Batch of 4 targets.
Target 1
Amino acid sequence: MTTTRFAPSPTGHIHVGNLRTALMNYLIARKAGGSFILRLDDTDRERSKQEYADGIQRDLEWLGLTWDRIERQSDRLDRYAEAADQLRAAGRLYEVFETPTELDLKRKKQLNMGRPPVYDRAGLALSDDQKAALRAEGREGYWRFKLDQDRIEWPDGIIGDVSIDAASVSDPVLIRADGQVLYTFASSVDDVDMGVTDIVRGADHVTNTATQIQIMQAMGGTPPRFAHHSLLTGPQGEELSKRLGTLSLRDLREQGVAPEALLSLMARLGSNQPVALRLSLDELAEGFDLSQFGASPTKFDAEDLWPLTRERNQHLPFDAVADRIAAMGVPAEVAPQFWAVARQNITRLDDLDGWWTLMRDGATPVIDAEDADFVRQALDMLPPRPWTAATWGDWTGAVKAATGRKGKGLFMPLRKALTGMDHGPEMAELMPLLQTVHAD
Ligand SMILES: Nc1ncnc2c1ncn2[C@@H]1O[C@H](COP(=O)(O)OP(=O)(O)OP(=O)(O)O)[C@@H](O)[C@H]1O
């Protein structure tokens, strides 16, 4: 069965770049009728926080990206210890003792001699006595995976055929001196154990993929299909970061972005397919095609979300907003009409508040000096309440007959006097909802 996963570290609020990864994996599983795993990569005890783990779940739920299974790496530490023993027994995990300063020095020497700065495997040659002596000096051992120095190749779902010479890559550190299992290892163990068949992730992981393919093979597993999408940047090319909270899903939600707008943009951004509003994840999954995505960096501009949000909100049925409108204090008998009028003039649902305030409390009239007499005369002619859909036509007809004004010169000063704005809903539809007119 097709099984995908989204594996964020709960070290901040996830951003639109992380969403690109989550959504692609979700859509692949959904399209294939497979399974989507949310895996919290929380082995970094200092940086991982429960509030961020909760935040990630809230963000995904907001978008409807529900998972079939949730896993936490912190629950699986025994399993990683077991897998490490298996690699040690197979001679693929070896203990090393170099400090960061020593490694730095080695790299500089290699570079000076025109050689690539790849770890020289000095640790592999240490005898048990030498290791004991290093420990006696107070040094702590940590563990590297011994790569097979072949070429590592895979057909990437986005960037095409990849071939990496393992000899040009340092043996990765899998376990730190304090026993912390690093991402490269924990992730490989999980992907094998959990039967993950497809992994889409950022291009920042290409080298990881090369080493993880070997780690999975060393554990007797079959590596999944891989695809690496380009990283998203902000509109000016700026990097996104969970730690800085740039373009976080939480902020976009609080700003009133419609979930369908964000999903519709993210499922197509950076692909050859046009962006169009889709109202369901099934529709998005149906048209989703990884091979349509390019490898070049992709810019994300939050401004692109507003036209889609506007389109989405304008199509919401009354039932979807009834509770919200009731909570604003709109009386039940006018609520459906209020929605029918206001929805054509909002982007965010929060914009409804302004329209209701205007209808309930009236607007500060805007009256140009040259229209002052005309407006006063027209307002004196306002028909008695209740106002209906016919009121605007009847009133302006009578004003036209009395003043000789017509067209824009007739309608615009009256709109501005009643609403304080030169744009907005059809006045005929608005009049019955206007509870207060200040020059009444
Ligand atoms: N700017 C980005 N554009 C697209 N994908 C990204 C971007 N940044 C991270 N990702 C992807 O998000 C997924 C989750 O990764 P991770 O939790 O490590 O996020 P991160 O933002 O890189 O983290 P941190 O800022 O904490 O280092 C990975 O597949 C990673 O490739």
Target 2
Amino acid sequence: MSSLLSLQGVHTHIGAYHILHGVDLEVPAGQLTMLLGRNGAGKTTTLRSIMGLWQASQGQVLFDGQPIQALATPEIAQRDIAYVPENMGIFGDLTVRENLLLAARRARSLKELDTTRLDWLFSLFPALKKFWLYPAGKLSGGQKQMLAIARALIEPRRLLLIDEPSKGLAPAIILNLIAALKELKATDTTVLLVEQNFMVAKALGDRVAVMDNGRVVHAGAMAELAADEALQQRLLGLSLAAHQ
Ligand SMILES: Nc1ncnc2c1ncn2[C@@H]1O[C@H](COP(=O)(O)OP(=O)(O)OP(=O)(O)O)[C@@H](O)[C@H]1O
């Protein structure tokens, strides 16, 4: 199994704090890898270290076999890696249309947007079509999350990093999100998805990595972890089991 992204012994310091203590992580091409772990385990810091938003102080981040840990964030993004942060990064005062257009690096006007791609995004997230000319700030939490993911997908991407998309969403909306992400999976996009919700993890994950205290402490098939309650309990404790 070939990895599109590989982290080898990545350490990250934030100011005086040593947060990542040698993260080893493999993200196979064409699969969806879940990154799980208790609060504060280092999941967001790992995504930010991949994107160059925190500089890794030691270790390697290899994308398609090339080291990227010394590159600046715009250069990393230019490799067609997209990041949907937990706060989604959408512009509340701008319309859905403007938010999508701003996210497209190559298209300067709506006419230049790839219409086939836009139609595909509308089929994944019908609310975007419905609220095309609405200010994004007026969308519901679930719709905002879908807009944030659509922004990341407005141009072809080789790797998508998504931080806790289900956070704060009602159960019915989470089901919609799972359905949309399943469709995305069917296109063989490589995804690294941070989650706290084990139901989402079980529904979507091909592979899983579990972090604790700034390290990956378990890696394997998602189905294996989903079938082993004792392992879930040991690795994730009650904070996650409560979401099942
Ligand atoms: N800007 C910062 N300054 C200092 N410490 C930070 C900063 N950002 C994160 N940390 C610390 O780094 C550790 C890992 O945080 P991180 O956000 O990566 O965890 P996480 O696994 O994503 O957790 P959560 O699920 O709660 O978002 C935590 O102890 C956190 O307090």
Target 3
Amino acid sequence: MSAASLFQARGLVKRFGGLLATDHVDLAVEKGEIHALIGPNGAGKSTLVNLISGLLPLDGGSLSLDGVELTGLAPHQRVRAGLSRCFQVTSVFGHDTVLDNLLLAAQAHAGSSFRFLSRRSAEKELMDTALALAETVDLAGALHRIAGTLPHGAQRKLDVALALAARPRLLLLDEPMAGMGPEDSLQMVALIEKLRAQTAILLIEHDMDAVFQLADRVSVLDYGRVLASGDVDYIKGHPEVQAVYLGTDTET
Ligand SMILES: Nc1ncnc2c1ncn2[C@@H]1O[C@H](COP(=O)(O)OP(=O)(O)OP(=O)(O)O)[C@@H](O)[C@H]1O
């Protein structure tokens, strides 16, 4: 962790009764970095992501993004500060079209400059934003489809687009490949690789091929603490990581 890290988590603690689910975790994500978080089932990955996004209150420690203290902020305030997340369960509005989903998300994050635009200019700007998001996630050909009728892979891409509407500086992706077949997984890997240019990413994922392909750095959680953190070669060669995770079944 350097003083200039984009995102810093220091000494995070979460207890559930007697269980220490997050055990003094330090984690840093640098600008432009894809940082993967891996670990066996029950290691504390979801708990950590919920602490970072503000869905769970901390029992100890602090968080900052780009020098702004996030500790104690509500989830929507963290989004405004530049931290956006995708969920394991998709947050798409299933009965609306892809375009309406994107327009709603664009509007939600439009910001105060919109107050000074005419209605027509504001609508054009929202439409431009929505179309650009669709282009980014390769859904420009599905704008008028009802979101809930899209195949699973396309819904996950739409979910990513909704998170991108907030223009995050750090994007949390919680198992983006979950439930996907090989073709959709390849497309999601290509999308995440492309997003590297616009936001840093904290990626929680069980698909080790995807993790090793994408990650600049990998942190391994075990029993709520960081067992190891380093580049892919370091993690692949780490004896304890081999023992607790890579050498065993990595499927959920
Ligand atoms: N709300 C809760 N109340 C009590 N215990 C919890 C709660 N949430 C999680 N735990 C426990 O905390 C530990 C960490 O769980 P967590 O879901 O964060 O792990 P995980 O690494 O995300 O697992 P998975 O890969 O299965 O999603 C587990 O022992 C789990 O049973």
Target 4
Amino acid sequence: MSTLLSLREVWIEYGDKIVLERVSLDIEAGSFVSIIGPSGAGKSSLLRILLGQEIPTRGTILLDGVPLTPECGPDRGVVFQRYSVFPHLSVLRNAVFGIECAKAPLSARLFGAARRAAMDEAVEMLNAVGLGDSLHLYPAQMSGGMQQRLAIAQALIKRPRILLLDEPFGALDPGIRADMHGLITRLWRDYALTIVMVTHDIHEAFTLGTRVIALDKRRHDPHAPHRFGATAVYDIPLRNRVDPAAVEKPGMAINEILSSS
Ligand SMILES: Nc1ncnc2c1ncn2[C@@H]1O[C@H](COP(=O)(O)OP(=O)(O)OP(=O)(O)O)[C@@H](O)[C@H]1O
């Protein structure tokens, strides 16, 4: 596999608060990287710089060996924990809107054959996430899991190579979460995606990921908690990835997971 994203000595600082320090990582094309770490370790900040929403204070991020552009390009899609769908648009219109924004950035409207092609594309993607029977529902009429399926469809409709997931299943019930694990695994394979997912759920991290990276501080100054930032303290490649549908042991202890990976 080839390196798709490279982080070189990346630092993120907000004022005098150092959030991340010296993060150097190579992320291979086609990998599924789970990012774990304590609250405040900088996991979401890391995703924001990969998305291009923020630029690192120091260091470089390369995409295909070229410095990342400081805006969110079509090669990257993102799904957040809270549903980011438009409440006043139907499922189909939500998905079509994503294509319209990509293809007609000024007016966000397509007409004629271009609109029909966008509709076909949207229906195909909505079928892929299991919303083919819900095209005309509005978000308020859907469950949390369905709304997250729509958010995933919106992110994938621009056919990104990289999908960034920020606790995408954190607000869902365990049963729905298991369904979503199956869905994201299938989409990762079918669309040849590279996925970077932040999660607080260690079981999810090890079940879905081909690699788990733990962010935490190596150094602490009790008198100045923001003096040192977090970095990648563990970087665990997982050769034997588990089929999410086959996993029935939520809440496994980390040492059990580590010894079984
Ligand atoms: N724009 C900002 N300005 C100042 N501080 C910020 C900003 N964004 C994030 N921070 C701080 O950076 C630190 C890391 O935040 P971040 O959200 O990346 O952590 P996290 O690991 O994702 O946390 P959680 O697991 O609780 O979501 C926190 O202390 C947060 O308050």
